[in-house]
């Protein structure tokens, strides 16, 4: 059994101060501030930071899926604003290593900057550096160059460990300087490997090696895993084991069919908090799939209500959702199964907008943040319900006596609307709630209610409520609490007072009932009601909202106390500068807002003073700036240029690699020799061209044709074949094809067969069997009726190292990519005017480009994208480059993706933008590129201001 010594000590001593501060900042990032050393520990209830129990409410984000560092703070701030305090982050080895021994942490790969951004937003990080990450990313995060290393991946094979250690050394150095324990203060835990379920002696030795390596590299935070029960004890054990759970799996085509919620209560490990290291936050979608709107429907706000609260009721105190913001598998980062978007149906969409689930995550996140007793609970006897279809799952905090009752369907997949009364045994006696005649607790189809009892709202005792509590805070001299329920549902809240308090209903309809057990407020959730109760130690203001009203309630915490805001699209940050409360956030069309904050008399919003008028509720009313309308230009002035000179017999391929290898690093057996796999010749991304030369003369009869087997990967594969410039055909969604050589196409002397292939990404290596080394490109080329050796093959793919800024996945090997057209289109005279939709029946490759000047409103965050629309029946594929960044792979006949978000920074909202689209037409039917337009996913008056990554 392996436990890092300090963790043991921590457990024994309750907590332990780790290494002195200051071991930070030797890297390329900004100079390290002197950060105080913090203690990170854990016990069977929760993680603790400096001895304070901390619920980790975490979301997964992938920096390599957002190639615009200026937007990283936007994502972290949106997370924080939803009550998240943690991000779980994979670091992709391949993203940082274009070549063996070369590591890049600059520009869009600047991990120091990323971690600083997380820290500034108040977000802890669970760092997940692999070396293998899966993640639906090319090779599961293994570098492209590893496809040429026949090592035993994910094992103690010394040849593999030597390479993996190179990466660990590099990434650990960066992570170590950001640790909460002895760095700049962000990284709270470190995950070793990913979903590694190999508990054999070899598997354990491998895990142990990685753990020893992490410790040797100065990692001092707890080591965690998403390996379920594999590494709990024994060699290779991590400090805190976590669960990896996707209860609805990944078929989004039946978005209203649910599978049951797992009961995580049976998944505890002795001495460790219950941690869902990955719990479903959406789903990936395959080429030709139903689309991410359906995934968002499958894993919707109701899913969050039922499944995430279920985990709370099971005692989980660390929950991470995969994904919280999915982003874009730009360039050739996607795996063969998936298309460019990795939106995932997540709470924050690929275009950085809020899905309804964001608001449910927020309601739960605020609750977990405010209600400290939730971090230390034991199961207790559930309350009785008078509806057999509903159950209560109950927990109690042994110190405060606070009770948590999850009222839900017995069958977590049920969608019927149910009502019930719940029997509560509380300090004050027994209650059958709700007590008001003619009302009940309503479970509105798929939802669960997490009800609180025996809880202190600041200085006031809340005996119970049939509303859910969103948050409570002491601002200035009073306590404020937000209670909520579905629109139109009944609620009642019983508050304990020694003597009858004074109740002032400031807005809405709220009735009061006083008896010796306390003050009962009776109401219906409708808009936002406000009630002030005076008579306790501090005045209490209750904001009682329907679920819709809670969407516009925001909380931020400052050293001077919490700030609550009602209104605005988003509150990003709050801090005090004397009596000035400086707020930043995003405004939409509704300018009305108010803020509850003690000690503030003046307010600024995004740096500008706002008139702040005191209200009867004790808040300050504000009038926020609203966004200006956005008008996007039409994309016209297209030009086009032919892009497949390789088809022509006379094309000069003398500089291309001659295929002469007889052995391969691949796990695929070559079907014919020489080996024709693209990876073996160093071509790892996108398109690779092959040209096979054969001689026809008196001594050499022409082959009757060619039988090809080509691996592209996945459903989106394709290849096209030409003979001496004549199109012979394409194969889509299949591997083998036979192409006869019509005599009329043959010529005396040198004949050339040209084959355009595509690598749709390398397989992940989930089982450590080298699947990332599955061949791409031609697997076998058998001439019909001739010796295979009669054909000499040359091949050309992506030119490696071409663009260090955009990295190893951006370009493939089309002629225009090799010439750099997405960045330098060359001579304008070579580009001819074009209109879209194109009307072109020639198979092959054509490039289209236009330059669009944008002058969008300043002080506004507008999320842009490109949309391709096609008349039905077109057969082509397109690659979309914006200012040189490959932001979309499109397959007209397969879809489903037609809309491609382009992050600010890649696109410049205040300047000229080059849009370049490479179109590979796979047949001779009428068609070609459809219409292309700019789209707006949402625009808000905002402090987000991003510099371009060009
Ligand atoms: C997890 C895995 C992730 C990702 C996810 C599905 O189990 O750890 O990397 O592949 O499945 O999106």
For this entry, give a set of tags.
56 strands, 12% helix, disordered N terminus, elongated, binds beta-D-galactopyranose, 11 helices
- Radius of gyration, taken over Cα atoms and rounded to an integer in Å: 30 Å
* Total number of strands: 56
The unreliable regions are 1-31
Q: How many separate helices?
A: 11
| Shape type | elongated
* % residues in beta strands: 35-45%
Alpha-beta content class: mainly beta
Mean pLDDT: 94
- Please report the distance between the alpha carbons of the first and last residues: 50 Å
Provide the helix percentage.
10-25%
What is bound: which ligands? beta-D-galactopyranose
- Widest sheet, order of strands: 9-8-7-6-5-4-12-11-10
Largest sheet: 9 strands, parallel
Q: Which secondary structure elements does this structure contain, and how are they paired or packed?
A:
Blueprint: H1 5-13, E1 40-42, E2 47-49, E3 52-54, E4 56-61, H2 72-81, E5 86-90, H3 93-96, H4 111-120, E6 124-128, H5 158-176, E7 187-191, H6 201-216, E8 223-225, E9 240-241, E10 244-245, E11 275-280, H7 292-298, H8 301-313, E12 318-325, H9 356-370, E13 378-380, E14 390-396, E15 403-409, E16 417-420, E17 422-426, E18 429-433, E19 441-444, E20 449-457, E21 460-465, E22 468-475, E23 478-485, E24 490-496, E25 502-507, E26 510-515, E27 518-524, E28 528-534, E29 540-546, H10 547-550, E30 553-558, E31 561-567, E32 570-577, E33 580-586, E34 592-597, E35 602-605, E36 608-610, E37 613-614, E38 620-623, E39 638-642, E40 657-658, E41 686-696, E42 705-711, E43 718-723, E44 726-732, E45 736-740, E46 749-759, E47 777-784, E48 792-796, H11 815-818, E49 832-834, E50 844-853, E51 860-869, E52 876-882, E53 885-891, E54 899-902, E55 912-921, E56 931-941
Parallel strand pairs: 4-5, 4-12, 5-6, 6-7, 7-8, 8-9, 10-11, 11-12, 23-29, 33-35
Antiparallel strand pairs: 1-2, 2-3, 13-14, 14-15, 15-20, 16-19, 17-18, 20-21, 21-24, 22-23, 24-27, 25-28, 26-27, 28-29, 30-31, 31-34, 32-33, 34-38, 35-36, 37-38, 39-49, 39-50, 40-48, 41-46, 41-48, 42-45, 42-47, 43-44, 43-46, 50-55, 51-54, 51-56, 52-53, 52-55
Helix pairs in contact: 2-4, 5-6, 8-9
This protein binds beta-D-galactopyranose (GAL).
Residues 133-136, 194-195, 226, 244, 278, 284, 322 line the site of beta-D-galactopyranose (GAL).
